[in-house]
Input
Amino acid sequence: MSSHLPSTAEIREMLVGLLDRDIEIAPAPPLLPGPRLPASVALYVDDSMRVSAVVVCDLEMSCYAGAALGLATPPTAEKSITRGILDETLRENLYEVLNIAASLFNAEGARHLRLYDLHPAGDPIPANILAHTLTLGLRQDLSVTIGGYGTGRVSIVLA
Output
């Protein structure tokens, strides 16, 4: 049984339903986090606790999604972007967004996945986790604009 790579339409529909905002999605280059590009990395595991997917959100996407879910003002997100780290409230809200995003992987006939862990933007990402983000192959690399907030990037990678 394999994992399901969600379509752009599925991703957009989930974000619109969750954030109640206009969402625009376009293809983007792969998101490769590092010291100059802080990013949040979410790990999704199957029932045997094997990492089967990762979702990588750049700092902007992390802040805008967290702020939009919590109905925080855009300046709240901008403040965290300027500081280069998610504040605690945005971290908690981003975790909720990414927890709900697990539903994107759970298509009929696909392996059941759940959110296992989140390494928020601004925190160090362990090398073994970073390696999952660099996988080529089954992935979606997108630019996402959240109405009223701004644009960030997200990569969804099947491990």
Q: What stands out?
A: The longest strand covers residues 150-158. The CA atoms of residues 86 and 119 lie 11 Å apart. The helical segments are 8-19, 59-69, 74-83, 88-101, 127-133. The domain at 8-158 is CATH 3.40.1550.10 (Chemotaxis protein chec).
